[in-house]
């Protein structure tokens, strides 16, 4: 009888548990398949395991290297695409845009495969589940190695101001690659990861061995932001007093910081680009939106102008109508997904759908237990799934979202308007009267969102 094994699996920014009742698979491919099935991962992946001797992750080549309660890390296999891109040295004029649109043809069904690499100035990933402690200078690494040996031998902690200074500087740099404003929980996670990798740095007398490190990181990150502000980092300059209006020139007033999921909140312009060049490119982008078969060209322009667009959003907070007039391409479904990825480094639609499918069974249990008038409306919606036991995933998602609207105390009938068999003129007239609405038409087939 095979012995049940459990693995700690790092997937994106989450830590998950994998239990295999049949024991450790005999091949790596079988283990990869088990991970993909258990966590609903549709794309190709490879696995890394954490080696106890080196305290680092290595590529898994054989399952003989694994044992119960080991830590695995999911690594997504990168897509290999060959794209013809617009040269970055100069801003194309209108004729360049026309010729590019004519030479590149992308159908609507394949538009989601046009994924271009983000600008090097952008952050590439959100805050990790386990913070990777960077490699310090050669002298610091030697001192830490000796300090760890002494600590493991007789429990003597290391106290060296020079080593501490180098560690704090390097950690501040590493944290800035994820966020310019780390919060208390993030600083605590970094300090905890530091003492786990280098136990000689644990503080005697501290309730958790890391409190002083957390406080030192707080001040070091503030000093590091000052250095980066001197290098004209946009997300830091936006909060300087010289960039605020006269009635807001107070250090703590109207501070603009990224929200929890925003990774590229206010990035720098791509190398060689200026405000005038990007504004000119925005005008060419509007012209490209009026032509067909320009998906790749538009996507490239949208990626290049992301920093200019974020400056407008953060500094001016324009209304939806004004923003749509200036950036019409952003309101395309594909570009909404791409803009979300540029901002958070996470794919929007695939992440949302996978998490919705994951929690659908528990959500349906919660919905079924709801009583009262709202519970009755929810039960009417759930009848669609009861009458069709083999309902498709699409129908389950539709029913789950409609039930969620009712469960939150909103009216699905007021939010979602189905105009089946309604004249087009009546549809337009009705939508003009709504501030927020989701509408569905069948002739012609269309689904849309009305805002303002």
Note the topology.
Layout lengths: L4 E7 L2 E7 L7 H11 L6 E7 L4 E4 L11 E6 L17 H10 L34 H17 L6 H16 L7 H14 L13 H20 L3 H4 L37 H15 L5 H10 L1 H11 L3 H7 L6 H12 L3 H21 L3 H16 L5 H15 L4 H4 E3 L5 H9 L3 E7 L2 E7 L1
Parallel strand pairs: 1-5, 6-7
Antiparallel strand pairs: 1-2, 3-4, 3-5, 7-8
Describe the structure.
This protein has 452 residues and is of the alpha/beta class. It has five domains: 72 residues, Roll (Ubiquitin-like (UB roll)), CATH 3.10.20; 106 residues, no CATH class; 106 residues, no CATH class; 63 residues; 42 residues, no CATH class. 47% of the residues lie in helices and 11% in strands. The chain has a five-stranded mixed sheet, covered by helices on one side. A hairpin with a 4-residue loop joins strand 3 and strand 4. Helix 2 packs across helix 8, helix 3 crosses helix 4 and helix 4 crosses helix 6. The longest helix is centred in the last third of the chain and has 21 residues. The protein is globular and about 85 Å long. The protein starts with a strand and ends with a strand.
């Amino acid at each position: 009888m095979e012995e049940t094994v459990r693995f700690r699996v790092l997937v994106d920014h989450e830590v998950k548990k994998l239990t295999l009742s049949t024991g450790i698979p005999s091949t790596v491919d079988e283990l990869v398949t088990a991970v993909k099935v258990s966590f609903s991962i549709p794309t190709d992946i490879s696995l890394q395991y954490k080696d106890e001797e080196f305290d680092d992750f290595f590529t898994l080549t054989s399952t003989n290297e694994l044992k119960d309660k080991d830590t695995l890390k999911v690594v997504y296999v990168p897509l290999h695409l060959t794209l013809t891109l617009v040269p970055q040295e100069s801003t194309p004029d209108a004729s360049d845009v026309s010729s590019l649109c004519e030479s590149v043809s992308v159908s609507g069904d394949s538009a989601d495969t046009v994924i271009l690499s983000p600008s090097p100035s952008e952050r590439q990933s959100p805050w990790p589940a386990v913070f990777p402690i960077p490699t310090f200078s050669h002298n610091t690494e030697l001192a830490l190695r000796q300090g760890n040996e002494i600590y493991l031998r007789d429990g003597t902690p290391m106290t060296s101001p020079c080593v501490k200074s180098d560690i704090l500087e390097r950690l501040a740099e590493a944290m800035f690659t994820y966020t310019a404003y780390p919060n208390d929980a993030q600083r605590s996670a970094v300090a905890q990861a530091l003492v786990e990798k280098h136990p000689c740095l644990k503080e005697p007398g501290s309730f958790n061995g890391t409190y002083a490190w957390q406080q030192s990181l707080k001040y070091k990150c503030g000093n590091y932001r000052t250095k980066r502000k001197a290098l004209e980092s946009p997300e830091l300059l936006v909060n300087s007093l010289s960039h605020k209006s006269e009635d807001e020139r107070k250090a703590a007033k109207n501070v603009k910081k990224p929200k929890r999921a925003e990774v590229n909140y206010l990035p720098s312009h791509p190398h060689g680009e200026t405000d005038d060049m990007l504004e000119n490119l925005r005008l060419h982008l509007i012209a490209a939106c009026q032509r067909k078969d320009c998906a790749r060209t538009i996507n490239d322009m949208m990626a290049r102008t992301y920093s200019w667009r974020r400056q407008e959003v953060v500094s001016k907070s324009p209304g939806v109508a004004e923003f749509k007039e200036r950036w019409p391409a952003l309101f395309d479904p594909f570009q909404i997904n791409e803009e979300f990825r540029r901002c958070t480094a996470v794919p929007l639609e695939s992440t949302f759908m996978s998490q919705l499918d994951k929690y659908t069974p528990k959500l349906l249990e919660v919905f079924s237990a709801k009583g009262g008038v709202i519970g009755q409306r929810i039960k009417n919606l759930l009848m669609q799934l009861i009458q069709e036991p083999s309902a498709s995933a699409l129908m389950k998602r539709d029913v789950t979202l409609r039930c969620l609207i009712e469960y939150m105390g909103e009216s699905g009938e007021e939010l979602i308007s189905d105009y089946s068999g309604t004249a087009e003129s009546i549809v337009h007239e009705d939508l003009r009267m709504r501030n927020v609405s989701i509408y569905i038409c069948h002739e012609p087939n269309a689904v849309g969102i009305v805002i303002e």
